[in-house]
Prior knowledge:
The structure holds two protein chains of two kinds. Chain A is mainly α. Chain A has three helices and three strands. Chain A folds into two domains: about 1-60; about 80-145, no CATH class. Chain A has helices at about 1-60, 60-70, 70-75; strands spanning about 95, 110-115, 130. The longest helix of chain A has about 55 residues, at about 1-60. The radius of gyration of chain A is 35 Å and the shape is elongated. The mean pLDDT of chain A is about 80. By secondary structure, chain B is α+β, with helices and mostly antiparallel strands. Chain B has a domain at about 240-290 and about 295-595: DD-peptidase/beta-lactamase superfamily (Beta-lactamase, 3-Layer(aba) Sandwich), CATH 3.40.710.10. Chain B has 20 helices and 18 strands. Chain B has helices at about 40-70, 80-90, 120-130, 140-145, 160-170, 190-195, 215-220, 220-225, 240-255, 305, 315-325, 360-365, 370-380, 380-390, 405, 420-425, 435-445, 470-485, 560-575, 590-595; strands spanning about 95, 100-115, 150-160, 175-185, 195-200, 205-215, 235, 260-265, 275-280, 335, 345, 345-350, 360, 500-510, 515-530, 535-540, 545-550, 550-555. In chain B, strand 17 (about 545-550) and strand 18 (about 550-555) form a beta hairpin. Residues about 80-90 of chain B have low confidence and may be disordered.
Amino acid sequence: MRPFLYASSILSVVALAFWAYGEGYKTRATARAVSHLSTEIGRRHEELAMLRAEWAYLNRPDRLRALAEMNFERLQLMPLASEHYALAEQVAYPVVRDASWADGPALDEKLEAIATLRHEFGADAPPALIAPPTLADDGEQLP
Amino acid sequence: MIGPFRRRRIVPTDPFRPVPSLEAAPPKARPAPTREPAAVVRARAERRLKFTAGCFLAAFMTVGLKMGTIAATDAREPVTTRGAGAAIVNARADIVDRAGRVLATNVDATALYAQPHLMVDPKAAAEGLARIFPDMDPEVWHRRFTSDSRFFWLKPNISPEQQQAVHDLGEPGLLFGRREMRLYPNGPLAAHVLGGYRYGQQDVRAAEIIGIAGIEKVFDDELRDPAREGAPLRLSLDLGVQSAVESVLASGMRLTNAKGAAAIVMDIHSGELIALASLPDFDPNARPRPLLEGDPAEDPLFNRTVQGLYELGSTFKIFASAQSLDLGLTNASTMIDTKPGLRVNRRRIRDFHNYGPELSVTDIIVKSSNIGTTRLALQIGAERQKAFLASLGFFDPSPVELIEARGARPLIPDRWPDIVTATVSYGHGMSASPLHLATGYASLLNGGTRVQPTLLAGRPSEPGPRVVSARTSAESRLMLRKVVTEGTASLAEVPGYYVGGKTGTADKPKHTGGYWEDKTITTFASIFPAHDPEYVLVVTLDEPQVFAAGEERRTAGWTAVPVSAEVTRRIAPLLGVRPDFDPAHEAAAAYLAAAR
Lengths: 143, 596
């Protein structure tokens, strides 16, 4: 019994020594990884600052204004004006084909378009229709 | 007894003692060691083993506890380790607008320096550099590279392409240093507010960035403070509004052939400056040198909104009428004698037209009668007039956070005889900056409490000390509204925004004394919406001149007013002011109701 105890305790001491040795190396490796990571974080911070500066540069108002003017035919972007404000009552009800309230969630599938009144062009101005875009067969939006 | 500290006495050995014989004495039989009882031995061994086991247990438990703590604590982003820490400590904080859009930030840059003692071929290096940088003279640099100096700064900031070209020279004596560069991504937008920077102490690894003008200089210490940990400085400016104001102002300046222009948009209740524009402007990324000759007021660096001290003309009239109302000397419909021929201290006070024998106080403002305000001011008296203008901040440099504002003390006459009382009532004889005017209008018209102009967003704003009663403030707003609906500023009307304001045209003083006949400074100070004011807008044009309705026009009504109307039209929707077409807002009762 006793020799067995001696042997097992010596073996366990050896095993623990191996384990502790391994742990020491693992700890040092982790510390190195942490330091690499924090260097990496610092570099990413710098990169982020650079990207933020670039974003601000690309979005400077002068450039956006020039782009809006260049693409006026396509985008029709205008400076925000007081006519762009409207009351909730001025927004027309959606044009609905033979729908009843009982339809519930299916109602919005029957919506053809939304008509908005263009009161700034006078009382008789025809309402503008905002229709959902026509989708091609593959689901892509056509211009 | 021999104590532990006493030396043992040495006893001399006796020489006559017989030498012991060499034959060893038979060994004495040593007494057999008495064996301790087995039970005692066992107990001791057990004790020792237990002690050792305890030691091991304690050691392993310590390790285990430590591991447990490490495993149980949350991971945190390191802030003070090498890489990240260096970047955070060195960086100057960003400046952003009220919505967080970047106005000034830092980017990495490269500086070029030379160490001639490391050079292989100084002549080739100098010639190569001259090819890359056309402003470098190869002979001068060859001479320097062959001198005894061991270090030269060549360029503070070079582009990546230039860096590659220098690298391709293959000269070991040309070295690159790391830099941070201040970048103003919006170019000249809000240039006068931001100011500019220069490098301070520099080293091959880093360089110090120092603000030299505008808000960069005022908040230099705060921006450089590592304790901020990079938190940006948030200004009250709105990038969109600032951009719209500058573009409208630039076109207005072109159309009216003006030499310069300035505009201020201020929140009437908090004093926050939403836009502050002065033209001509400059690019803070490449700040020009100050002009050494000529009129400093024509320097692009000159900030007209705070440094331009002008006689602001009839815009001051509302202060005389408001004080008169507030003191109870008159009310809005009191008739005042406006017959021509009024003389004060033997000087004649003139009106632009003859407005007949008498006008009500409201009509004095609407028609802009100098004689009328002179009478009001003389009734108030010099002391009370001075105290009132001082309470609106006209006698001190503006407290706004710009370094330029501190030097711009309004020009006040030393003595204050009746003629000064008279001329100041219609804005001549003392000079103040457009920012002073905006602050005065905001304080007078926001309900009558003093505001302090500020460029920082989110300052807790409590109403300042009361300047005039809420009723006086409301009546003044109604008068200013009538200037637009019936008076000199009819072009200022923007449907839905109830603009109210006062024009001011002042002849430009000559440097040699006297006034120019054909050079004016025109100002339009306005509020919108007049019945429930939210913003003050001041537009000033320097030497405008337009040909309209058959003649050359230099008055504010034809120059500053249309520009101001266009600015209002553009910025009011951007500021989120809803247009309102309710005619009830035009009624005097609506103004008085707002005062309650």
